[in-house]
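ARCHIVE CARD
CATEGORY: sequence design from structure
SOURCE FIELD: tokenized fold
FIELD CONTENT:
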């Protein structure tokens, strides 16, 4: 479909791949990230959509982060969200060296999902807070795609500006 997706992968069973798997497990245990479940999200979305025909006013907004994985700086996430966690010193130092060498959360690396979800969790919290007085009744993000449903009219400009302000606030 004309999309080019850049990925980075290590050779199976290489020291780099084993390190990557280890660091992902360390981060999973430390941050207790709940990874998005597409089926669960779709069912909850369809439940809301079925109720919309009874409403006088509503707005549905869909957004997609362009080149999501390759735009998330693993170094930045480490410095802002991970370094102050209570990881063991050797784990923190190992992860710091790893993110310095990889730079970004490239699609294909085992650590990419967790690194992206750590910063995306903060994005989700701030975005919901930003829209709390705007009639937000549904919000879900699945990796780099999001959907917002409001129970009143909100402008496209307001939504896009709020999403962009949230991005800049966490970055």
């Amino acid at each position: 479909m004309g999309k080019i997706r850049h990925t980075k992968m290590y050779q199976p069973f290489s020291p780099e791949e084993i390190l990557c798997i280890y660091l992902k497990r360390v981060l999973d245990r430390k941050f207790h990230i709940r990874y998005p479940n597409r089926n669960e999200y779709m069912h909850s979305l369809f439940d809301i959509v079925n109720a919309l025909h009874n409403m006088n006013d509503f707005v549905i907004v869909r957004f997609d982060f362009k080149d999501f994985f390759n735009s998330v700086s693993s170094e930045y996430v480490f410095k802002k969200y991970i370094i102050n966690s209570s990881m063991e010193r050797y784990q923190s130092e190992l992860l710091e060296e790893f993110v310095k060498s990889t730079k970004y959360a490239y699609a294909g690396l085992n650590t990419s999902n967790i690194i992206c979800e750590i910063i995306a969790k903060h994005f989700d919290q701030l975005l919901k807070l930003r829209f709390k007085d705007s009639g937000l009744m549904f919000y879900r993000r699945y990796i780099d795609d999001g959907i917002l449903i409001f129970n009143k009219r909100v402008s496209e400009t307001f939504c896009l500006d709020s999403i962009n302000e949230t991005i800049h606030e966490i970055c």
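CARD ANNOTATION: The mean pLDDT is 92. Strands lie at 59-64, 136-142, 145-150.
SHELF: design records, drawer C
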